[in-house]
Design goal:
This protein is of the alpha+beta class. It folds into 3 domains: 74 residues, Substrate Binding Domain Of Dnak, Chain:A, Domain 2, CATH 1.20.1270; 163 residues, no CATH class; 146 residues, Umud Fragment, subunit A (Ribbon), CATH 2.10.109.10. It contains 9 helices and 21 strands.
């Protein structure tokens, strides 16, 4: 690495040693294919280089000996020497690939946080809304994409007037599924939303993987907009108010594409009370990538994970998940432990749980932590109101730090000990204040 600091003499000696290694390889692998004369010449010229090294000859004499050895290698090296640049590049990438695969399999594995179940410890997809009337320039977009993995999305008003938003009968924001491409190459699924201003509609297309409460949802952006400019505290409050007057709402039929099928669905247009001028951005925001981190795959081969650690595991043997994925949660229960949620705290073996500062922050609802919640959604299996749970042998219990929006062991059960992969080690991207050793 620091060869530029070496003297000319030291550089030449190092060069000579490298040539001797090549000569040794050629002799070992090709001597049975060479004539006696070629073998003798190879040994003689290599011996001359060794002698100059032993004598500590000056750089000029070493250079002459090396040049003589190089001429011999051209005559005797076959496929071993000279090596073409193409072969060298292929060998380099093969060795690099083997090293990377080895590291990934036994030591360190890269992992991307897919959801916000561990927020604010680890971030899944999040958003940042631009200030009213502001649209970022190209340089800012490029900089934020490079440092934060931030992709910009916006919708511009097609006319002057009031903003109206479409909802399905059940109250969800109406959308249709479309096919797009990531980086202009890789097929992906996207969601297309329609908005109406002054009676004219425009569309907004965003990534389409927001299918659960843990993922990015456009409603989170609407919350910011409505709370900032409207008469309601949130999108949910606006929808609830509109539902009471559904009979008076304008409605239309929308062709909805989903799972490869197109169906007709009635949508209701909710007036927001927000007014915009033509050409003004209604929504302007960035979607930021989830945290990317390295996972230590080695430690848990020698020590057992302990309560309070973040840990990564495979889901292949969890029947209620049904797919083979990698999840990251916090370990809250080991075999034999008895767990109970006493909102907002989590109790373990009849004591407030310890092992991580996150437990205390949630129990005290220290912002931005919101506390632990008894699962109230349908499909929850464990730790309902007043319920205690004993962890069986060979199993772990995992929960997200963002309890209110985490689908975790309360819903799909226990993590088999054999499926634990490792612990989060280092957040290497994006380049935020979270960059560094993982918590």
């Amino acid at each position: 690495m620091f060869t530029f600091l070496y003297s000319e003499q030291k550089k030449m000696r190092q060069n000579a040693e490298n040539w001797l290694e090549v000569a040794d390889r050629v002799y070992k692998f090709r001597r049975d294919l060479l004539t006696d004369g070629q073998n003798q010449k190879l040994l003689t010229t290599a011996g001359a280089v060794k002698l100059r090294l032993k004598e500590r000859a000056d750089a000029s004499r070493l250079k002459l000996a090396i040049e003589s050895l190089e001429d011999t290698l051209r005559d005797t090296g076959g496929r071993l020497y000279p090596v073409s640049s193409m072969v060298e590049n292929v060998e380099f990438f093969l060795v690099a690939a083997i090293v990377i695969l080895g590291l990934r399999a036994y030591f360190v594995q890269p992992f991307k946080i897919p959801t916000n179940s561990m927020w604010p410890t680890y971030y899944g997809k999040t958003h940042e809304t631009d200030n009213p009337g502001q649209t970022p320039g190209i340089l800012r977009k490029v900089w934020r994409l490079a440092t934060l993995g931030a992709w910009h999305y916006s919708a511009v008003t097609p006319a002057d007037g009031e903003l109206k938003l479409p909802v399905f009968a059940e109250g969800n924001l109406a959308f249709s599924t479309v096919t797009g491409k990531t980086l202009g190459v890789f097929p992906t699924t996207e969601r297309q939303y329609q908005i109406s201003v002054g009676g004219e509609t425009t569309s907004l297309v965003i990534p389409g993987d927001g299918t659960s409460t843990e993922d990015f949802r456009i409603e989170k952006v609407l919350n910011n907009l409505i709370a900032r400019k409207g008469d309601h505290a949130s999108w949910l409050a606006l929808v609830s108010a509109a539902a009471r007057n559904r009979g008076r709402l304008e409605s239309t039929i929308m062709l909805v594409k989903s799972a490869g099928q197109t169906t007709e669905r009635r949508i209701f247009w909710i007036p927001t009370g927000l007014r915009f001028k033509k050409g003004e951005p209604v929504l302007s925001f960035d979607i930021l990538t989830g945290d990317m981190l390295f996972v230590d795959r080695l430690s848990y081969n020698f020590i057992r994970p302990h309560v309070g650690q973040g840990f990564v595991f495979q889901t292949r043997h969890i029947p209620d998940i049904g797919t083979d994925q990698y999840f990251v949660k916090r370990l809250v229960g080991t075999p034999g432990d008895v767990l109970e949620i006493r909102e907002p705290g989590l109790w373990r073996n009849e004591q407030p749980i310890t092992g991580s500062g996150v437990f205390t922050a949630n129990a005290r609802r220290t912002p931005p932590y919101q506390g632990y919640y008894n699962p109230a959604l349908s499909g929850a299996k464990y730790l309902g109101q007043g319920e205690q749970l004993k962890i069986p042998a060979g199993r772990f219990f995992a929960m997200g730090d963002n309890s209110l929006e985490s689908a975790d062991s309360r819903y799909w059960g226990f993590v088999p000990e054999k499926d634990v992969v490792g612990r989060p080690l280092f957040i290497y991207y994006p380049l935020t204040k979270r960059w560094g050793p993982a918590k």
